Automatic annotation (TrEMBL), chain A:
Species per Swiss-Prot/TrEMBL record: Parasulfitobacter algicola
Transmembrane region(s): 12-33, 53-75, 87-104, 110-128, 140-160, 199-220, 249-270, 276-293, 300-317, 329-348
Lineage: Bacteria, Pseudomonadati, Pseudomonadota, Alphaproteobacteria, Rhodobacterales
Location in the cell: Cell membrane
Keyword annotations from UniProtKB, A to Z: Cell membrane, Membrane, Transmembrane, Transmembrane helix
Keyword Plastid: no
Protein name per Swiss-Prot or TrEMBL: ABC transporter permease
Membrane topology: Multi-pass membrane protein
Matches recorded under Pfam families: BPD_transp_2 (PF02653)
From TrEMBL, chain C:
Topological category with respect to the lipid bilayer: Multi-pass membrane protein
Name of the protein in its database record: ABC transporter permease
Keywords, sorted A to Z: Cell membrane, Membrane, Transmembrane, Transmembrane helix
Family matches, as InterPro entries: ABC_transp_permease
Record's subcellular location: Cell membrane
Organism ancestry: Bacteria, Pseudomonadati, Pseudomonadota, Alphaproteobacteria, Rhodobacterales
TM spans (from-to): 47-80, 92-114, 129-147, 159-176, 196-220, 241-267, 279-299, 306-326, 338-356
Originating organism: Parasulfitobacter algicola
UniProtKB/TrEMBL annotation, chain D:
Residues annotated as domain ABC transporter: 17-252, 269-516
Record keywords: ATP-binding, Nucleotide-binding
Molecular function GO terms recorded: ATP binding
PROSITE patterns: ABC_TRANSPORTER_1, ABC_TRANSPORTER_2
Pfam families named among the record's database cross-references: ABC_tran (PF00005)
Designated name of the protein: ABC transporter ATP-binding protein
Length: 373, 307, 373, 520
């Protein structure tokens, strides 16, 4: 049926799009008087050239996997959850409260509790928008935008006035007890004898993110609930016919989505900062939208897109460290990558398709020659 | 060795103290003809990353702007005993760290007095960026100054927002100013980064006085900015760069006594600052330096005696 | 009289705050009514804010600045059109990417051109749109009530404010009274109907996207050259997202858009004015009663209501009790400033839930028009 | 009928449409292969063919909606290129698509003028159009309320709007793609009167349909398409339905349903005083009572929009209602809010919905995923917490085999099957549940005759197994030939009950129009 082999669709198109984006970025870099080739080298070697680079890349990717999955799950039910930012922030609060106020003897006990706390708080923050959508049809896009702002206010209040240690300038909680500190990738991998940089913030949460991808994949494509979520997303009228309750599906999906966004906190709050700081989410909720859409709302796609964004973040940081390229340019590069790989991919696909068709025509079933006119 | 500076998340163009720090660094570079390394952070995780990278790359000293670095520095400092670190706005007690803190409340106290004296309505305003302890420290010092000059004066306080956008929302700053004006304020003090641009602009448009912050902002609207509460982050950076790797470590308080904070008078606002004002403010300054007056520091007990 | 003046001032502030929202909202309305979703309003405004200020500074003319601002916004519109109309890409991704692109590019170019810390120099004189005093504002101000209303509220705004409010009837007229409007609305509902009626879907959608660009251009210009005197980094401060919320709130209709934007403006004005309000403990009690009513209502309906409203009720009850125990029964309760700041967003959610309900977007919205696959 | 070549105007010898060597591929699928067609002015030309034969594609090319890969179009002796619909309209072609191209929330008037406005302002165009519409309506008996919204009017009315659209644009050539698929017999008769009127004015009409009776009744010439090729063009007067059916399907088709007399058993479904008030607060069912026994087919006739759809929805469990419904003697809860479909299925009720694309199938799901649709909770398809997709696929393949779904590929998405095959997928799913009660809405809408034959056989076979069947259809012929008992609905009420061998289309038609007195 398809004009193009699958590998072209999955690998070739994103690759060419990526090259186009980098080419354009190169022009911008050239315009500000830096060497684009060197910049690319720095980005690649800085993000992927050492376990240290990978450590950062994977750390960012972990954040994006969670927020990306959150958006992707909601998208399967055609719900557009832009509230990842707020949900992840509340998830951070859940992690902080659990780590600060429950005396854990060991991280193995703290981790499941923290995951639960993060997920519950995140889910709670998605619950009200979900409820309003399910019951009253209030558009989830507006309510989640509003809840991002409300969440920021609540966190600001709690961090400045309630949770901040009295002498600290920083609107952040106290440091979590050492027993709650998660092992880094260095700690984990050295057990199996793989040397890994000690300095990088990537931690065991990365594996939990991978696990989350698998669980979500199973959930969406191999469970009754996932089946119902997808069916509802494809056609609400058909879902009603099949006895799938729209209210239930909207609620459950939003809870799962919020929970996933909240779980990002185990990586950045528990794994990296080891305390809850203000604005800990740092826009990962919004990047999650791009990650989910680029990943075509599929866990594997989300995983790959998250790695790409992790690469861009870490590569960008290396660029800042090694050159005088301003951070704004890195934002521009990220924007171009999103634009070309996510929205302008058809620009690449269309000519590629006709190329494949051209090569395939002769070998395909011979058809009656068209009347030459 | 090349010195390095790490700017906090707001970026070096934050119209606030990152920008002041950047100013100090460039001044040093221009005067000495040397170069320095710099990075603008984009995420929390980069704090430690940047510190380690610069330290491993041989940069010395390494200056960082902002209280948020305290944690990362505490972890990193011991690993690089031969590198000097300078932390601005927060204290880290390590042998190779210089901590520079500013008595913003003292400077704010002085401009508060000036605001009260310049005000005809007896109502003055304060506009902060995000509601964080540092800004409350500014506000508390300011209110004390206002009340010292005019016990009956009223201070209207506003914060801009709860997300990082609060530091960059001149339009909201402008509206807050208008709201304060409509409540009678005729002098407004902005401690709000980029948002302050809008505050000063609107004050000038509406013909009331404003007070700038961090760097000398008198020139932005000559004759309309009463004064600026200068916080000489630039000097701190300049000094650190000049002293080089062997800089003196320990705890440095930049206050009125060593001109670390103060109020700015120049050609742009000379006509606004009356002799009476100067006299009163200079007297208070002397008393603060001598210890006769203590300005309450919000951070000491997380509360402000007046508001 | 004092209260009257205060109300006038708040309304005055409402108008100013509503203006950029309204322009962006109407911009989004044109685009989305034609079936092209646009979460890139923010980016277009930002690009326009920068370019208008830059050019106004260089030329000394606010009007040339306006043209330049519109031009910059149009370039972004064109990219969005290219991605979502010509290349049938994902409209949401394109919007996200353009927002980021604007964020980075504006500062980068500003720094390159002016070397003033990513800002434009301050605009003075004719480089800025100043407020207009309408005729007879002074003379008429002696008339009680109406006089002050005319002078304080209606007169004394920048021309762009009047343009913005004029755009509401204009938009209505264009949409509902012209051939172009008929076609535009049709293409957002059923592009196939438009296509088979012999009209080009592509051009119609491009036209809508371009109009969106023009209006966003005015909105951005208003921010930097009218209410402010120059560009600063990220000065749109999420207004594009609020405008998007207002658009959904308004159910994609021009007069409703006016209402929604005024309402948002009003909430923000109230918040600016009364940030430090203190409530009395009996308000906390009123809250408790409200919660009880909520629970009672929930108990009579489905399990879903029980679950959600019950959770909410429990949490609010806990907070109310906390307030009560810490402040004493009769004392005044100071609502933390941070929480007051979230009031506009909370009120929006409440109003949406209570009065607005379901909003149905244009049917073909968000989907590229594809004749054959 | 008279010789179509010479009928009509004196210049009738010149074909008004001539297609030469039209070819069109969608990717690897060749929908049209080297097609040649001539149609004379003042005639009605029928096109028939199996689902997916390429009829709609050919007409869409003529209307400029698709572009042909090769071939020539000659309109009134002029070679014409039709790159878009604009050009087609200019060449005097109008088309009524199978799936109407109307803007749902626009008024009739707005839909008619869309794209044919004169001047930039609407008001004068609307006024002019209103007048013209009035004249057209009168001239062709096309009565429509110009201010009604499309979403509020029935399909029959919507179709008139489509025809008015074409006439408003001065179309001389009118193409209708399966126009009667959604119409009642009386509406269809009305349509044909209109078409005959248009023909008498010298207009050229192309009619695509699956109903051979219509071809025989109204067309002058007829073409048969098969697998993208034009296999025959004949004069209608010189052919027979049997011959056409054979040309179409490539084998002999049984045009009549063969069934034994019913042997009704116990009451399976009892409905008493059923009332439905919809979201718009309109009373859709006004106290309906009837019952169905095991081993019988109850046909429900009626013009669409008279409550049959709501009746099916209530019984299917996604419309709340008041009254009593008993299945196998047990009461069913009717208050559930859209979530009761599952318990209905558990009670042995299966449901083939009227609109397979909106309700019966998820168009983007694969065939095997659609097989679980509504039965996703069935233990047969589950493996612990997970769904047993392998079992599901095996099951689907088996069903596809038994129901002769083409192509029998369970990985293909539902949308890529032809209408008839989509219907078979739904039927296979519902019938194979071995339900006690089967609800079927419009089983053969838009389906070709080969598939109709098969579907009818399946329904009768199920009845013979002793199942109760409720059949809703607007096709009186279908109702009459399948049902063992017929009730007629009008305006939410039952107008009467008849036995198929004691009634006829005329009597049912009157009942459907709400005229009880005359009919009784
Ligand atoms: N938009 C499209 N994209 C891809 N393939 C298409 C498209 N439309 C039709 N086809 C292919 O062309 C073939 C002919 O389709 P067409 O719609 O012309 O059939 P038809 O004769 O009208 O069938 P029906 O009786 O079901 O209406 C189909 O089998 C299908 O494979
Ligand atoms: N987008 C598409 N991609 C592939 N095939 C398509 C597509 N659209 C239509 N088709 C094919 O075109 C043929 C006819 O489709 P058409 O749109 O006429 O609807 P239909 O299946 O006949 O439905 P109906 O039951 O309403 O007659 C079908 O065989 C279908 O497989
Ligand atoms: Mg067809
Ligand atoms: Mg069909």
């Amino acid at each position: 049926m398809d004009a193009m082999p699958k590998w072209a669709e999955v690998i070739l198109i994103p690759l060419i799009s990526l090259i186009l984006a980098f080419f354009l970025s190169g022009l911008v870099i050239l315009a500000i008087g830096e060497n684009p080739i060197r910049a690319l080298q720095i980005m690649i070697s800085g993000a992927l050239g050492s376990t240290y680079g990978w450590g950062y890349t994977l750390y960012y990717a972990t954040n994006f996997i969670f927020t990306g999955l959150a958006v992707a799950v909601a998208f399967q039910a055609r719900l557009f959850n832009i509230g990842g930012e707020g949900q992840a922030a509340l998830g951070g609060l859940g992690v902080a409260l659990i780590c600060l106020y429950i005396p854990f003897p060991h991280w193995t006990m703290a981790l499941p509790a923290a995951i639960l706390g993060a997920a519950i708080f995140g889910a709670f923050w998605a619950m009200i928008p979900g409820y309003l959508q399910a019951r009253l049809g209030v558009h989830v896009v507006i309510t989640t935008i509003m809840f991002n702002f409300i969440g920021a206010s609540i966190l600001n209040y709690l961090l400045v006035d309630i949770l901040r240690p009295p002498t600290s300038m920083n609107p952040a909680t106290a440091r979590f007890p050492d027993a709650t500190n998660l092992p880094s990738l260095h700690d984990v991998l050295s057990v199996v004898g793989i040397p890994f940089s000690r300095a990088a913030p990537a931690n065991i949460s990365f594996f939990i993110a991978i696990l989350a991808c698998i669980v979500i994949w199973v959930l969406i494509w191999h469970t009754r609930l996932g089946y119902q979520i997808r069916a509802f997303g494809q056609s609400e009228s058909a879902a009603k016919y099949a006895g799938i309750s729209p209210e239930k599906i909207i609620m459950v999906t939003m809870l799962i989505s919020g929970g996933l966004a909240g779980m990002m906190a185990i990586n950045n709050v528990m794994g990296e900062a080891e305390r809850l700081v203000q604005n800990a989410v740092e826009g990962a909720g919004f990047i999650g939208i791009a990650v989910a859409l680029m990943g075509r709302s599929h866990p594997i796609g989300v995983f790959l897109a998250a790695i790409l964004f992790g690469f861009l973040y870490q590569g960008g940081a290396e660029l800042s460290l090694e050159t005088s390229i301003p951070s704004d340019l890195i934002v521009v590069i990220q924007a171009l990558v999103i634009l070309f790989t996510g929205a302008l991919d058809d620009m690449v696909r269309a000519p590629l398709k006709s190329m494949f068709l051209m090569f395939r025509k002769p070998e395909a079933t011979p058809k009656a020659p068209k009347p030459a006119e | 060795a090349e010195p390095a500076i790490i700017f906090d998340l707001g970026g070096k163009f934050d119209k606030s103290f990152n920008e002041a720090a950047f100013g100090g660094a460039t001044r040093w570079a221009e005067e000495t003809g040397n170069t320095f390394r710099e990075i603008e952070l984009q995420s929390e995780a980069q704090r430690e990353q940047a510190l380690r990278r610069f330290a491993e790359g041989g940069s010395n000293p390494i200056v960082m702007t902002g209280f948020a670095f305290a944690d990362a520095l505490t972890e990193v400092a011991d690993d690089y005993p031969d590198t000097s670190f300078v932390l601005i706005d927060m204290v880290v007690d390590k042998p190779n760290v210089r901590s520079v803190v500013f008595n913003e409340h003292e400077g704010s106290y002085l401009v508060g007095m000036m605001a009260a004296k310049a005000s005809e309505s007896g109502t003055v305003g304060f506009i902060g960026g995000m509601d964080i302890p540092l800004i409350r420290k500014f506000a508390c010092g300011y209110v004390q100054g206002v009340k010292a000059a005019n016990p009956d004066a009223k201070v209207i306080q506003n914060m801009t927002g709860t997300t990082p956008a609060a530091w960059n929302d001149p339009v909201k700053g402008s509206e807050l100013t208008k709201a304060q004006i409509s409540q009678g304020a005729d002098v407004v003090y902005a401690a709000a980064g980029g948002t302050g641009v809008g505050v000063l602009q609107t004050a000038a448009d509406e013909n009331i006085l404003s007070i700038g912050v961090d760097s000398n902002q008198n020139h932005l609207h000559p004759g309309k900015v009463l004064t600026s509460m200068v916080k000489r982050v630039d000097n701190a950076v300049y000094a650190a760069f000049t002293e080089g790797p062997g800089l003196e470590k320990g705890f440095q308080v930049m206050g009125l006594n060593n001109d670390g904070v103060g109020y700015a008078v120049d050609d742009n606002n000379a006509t606004l600052v009356t002799a009476d004002m100067t006299a009163a403010v200079e007297e208070a300054k002397a008393k603060i330096v001598s210890g006769e007056i203590t300005v309450h520091d919000y951070m000491s007990d997380n509360s402000c005696p007046v508001n | 009289m004092d209260i009257f003046i205060t109300i006038l001032q708040i309304l005055d502030s409402t108008l100013r705050l509503a203006t950029p929202l309204l322009l962006a909202c109407l911009a989004g309305l044109f685009s989305e009514r034609a079936g092209i979703f646009d979460i890139g309003l923010e980016g277009k405004m930002l690009a326009a804010a920068f370019m208008s200020a830059a050019i106004a500074f260089v030329t000394g003319s606010a009007w040339i600045g306006l043209a330049a601002g519109i031009g910059a916004s149009l370039v972004f519109s064109l990219i969005h059109g290219l991605a979502s109309i010509t290349f049938r890409g994902n409209q949401l991704i394109s919007g996200v990417a353009l927002n980021m692109l604007a964020l980075g590019l504006t500062v980068l170019i500003a720094q390159g051109w002016f070397s003033q810390a990513g800002r434009t120099p301050t605009l003075i004189g004719d480089a800025r749109f100043t407020s207009l005093t309408l005729p007879f504002a002074e003379t008429l101000s002696v008339i009680p009530i109406l006089g002050p209303i005319y002078k304080e509220l209606i007169s004394g705004h920048s021309i762009l404010v009047y343009i913005a409010f004029l755009m509401v009837p204009v938009t209505w007229w264009v949409l509902y009274r012209t051939r172009f409007g008929l076609r535009l609305r049709a293409v957002g509902e059923n592009p196939a109907a438009v296509d088979t009626a012999g009209i080009s879907v592509i051009w119609l959608r491009y036209a809508a996207v371009m109009i969106c660009g023009v209006l966003c251009g005015i909105a951005g210009t208003y921010l930097s050259t009218s209410i402010q005197a120059g560009f600063t980094d990220n000065m749109t401060a999420n207004r594009g997202y609020i405008a998007l919320a207002a658009l959904i709130f308004a159910k994609w209709r021009p007069w409703y858009a006016l209402g929604a934007c005024l309402l948002f403006g009003f909430f923000f004005a109230i918040d600016n004015r009364f940030q430090n309000i203190s409530l009395y403990a009996w308000l906390a009690i009123a809250l408790l009663i409200l919660i009880a009513a909520l629970l009672f209502f929930a108990a009579r309906k489905s399990r879903l209501d029980m679950f959600v409203l019950g959770t909410l009720g429990t949490i609010s009850a806990a907070i109310a009790i906390l307030i009560w125990t810490t402040n004493g029964l009769a004392g005044s309760v100071v609502i933390p400033g941070q929480l007051m700041q979230s009031l506009p967003y909370v009120l929006t959610v409440v109003i949406l839930a209570g009065f607005v309900g379901k909003a149905t977007p244009p049917k073909a919205g968000g989907e590229p028009y594809i004749k054959e696959r | 009928m008279a010789n179509p070549e010479t009928k009509g105007r004196p210049d009738g010898a010149v074909p008004s449409i001539e297609l030469r060597g039209i070819s069109k591929s969608f990717g690897p699928v060749q929908a049209n292969k080297d097609i040649t067609l001539r149609v004379m002015p003042g005639t009605i030309h029928g096109i028939i063919g199996e689902n997916g034969a390429g009829k709609s594609t050919l007409m869409s090319i003529l209307y400029g909606f698709y572009k042909a890969d090769a071939g020539e179009i000659i309109i009134n002796r002029k070679p014409t290129t039709i790159p878009d619909s604009q050009a087609a309209i200019a060449a005097g072609i109008g088309m009524v698509f199978q799936h109407f191209k109307l803007v749902e929330n626009f008024s009739v008037l707005e839909n008619v003028i869309l794209g044919a406005e004169d001047g930039g302002l609407l008001r004068p165009s609307l006024a002019k159009a209103r007048k013209l519409l009035g004249e057209l309506s009168k001239e062709y008996e096309l009565n429509v309320d110009p201010d009604a919204l499309i979403e509020d009017i029935g399909v029959g009315m919507q179709q008139r709007v489509e025809i008015l659209k074409a006439l408003y644009r001065h179309a001389d050539i009118l193409i209708l793609d399966e126009p009667t698929g959604v119409l009642t017999p009386s509406e269809a008769d009305h349509l044909f009167r209109i078409l005959n009127g248009l023909k008498d004015e010298g207009k050229t009409i192309i009619l695509i349909t699956h109903k051979l009776r219509e071809i025989m009744d109204i067309t002058d010439t007829v073409s048969v398409m098969r697998r993208g090729e034009m296999t025959a063009t004949v004069k209608t007067s010189e052919t027979s339905p049997e011959q056409l059916a054979e040309l179409m399907v490539g084998r002999k088709v049984l045009l009549r349903v063969e069934k034994r007399p019913a042997q009704p058993g116990a009451k399976v479904l009892e409905v008493e005083n059923l009332r439905v008030i919809d979201e718009k607060k309109v009373e859709r069912l006004k106290g309906v009572s009837f019952n169905v026994q095991a081993g019988e087919i109850l046909g429900i006739a009626g013009v669409s929009g008279n409550g049959q759809s709501e009746l099916l929805e209530v019984l299917g469990g996604y419309q709340s209602a008041t009254g009593t419904v008993r299945v196998n003697g047990q009461d069913i809860d009717l208050t559930g809010r859209f979530s009761d479909g599952q318990s209905r299925r558990a009670r042995g009720i299966a449901h083939v919905p009227e609109d397979r694309q909106r309700e019966g199938l998820i168009m983007d799901f694969t065939a095997w995923e659609n097989t679980a649709f509504g039965y996703h909770n069935d233990p047969k398809y589950s493996k612990g917490l997970l769904m047993d997709n392998d079992a599901l696929r095996r099951d689907t393949e088996e069903k596809m085999q038994r129901f002769d779904v083409r192509p029998p590929n369970c990985w293909q998405p539902a949308k890529s099957f032809s209408g008839g095959n989509q219907q078979k997928i739904v039927l296979a799913r519902e019938i194979e549940r071995n339900p006690d009660l089967l609800l079927i809405g419009q089983p053969t809408r838009g389906v070709d005759i080969g598939a109709i034959e098969f579907i009818h056989q399946q329904i009768v076979a199920l009845r013979d197994q002793g199942k109760a069947i409720v059949l809703v259809s607007v096709e009186l012929e279908e109702i009459l030939s399948l049902s063992d008992r017929i009730i007629v609905m009008f305006d939410g009420q039952i107008m009467g009950e008849r036995l198929p061998d004691q009634t006829n289309e005329q009597e049912l038609g009157l009942l459907m129009a709400g005229m009880k007195g005359q009919a009784a």
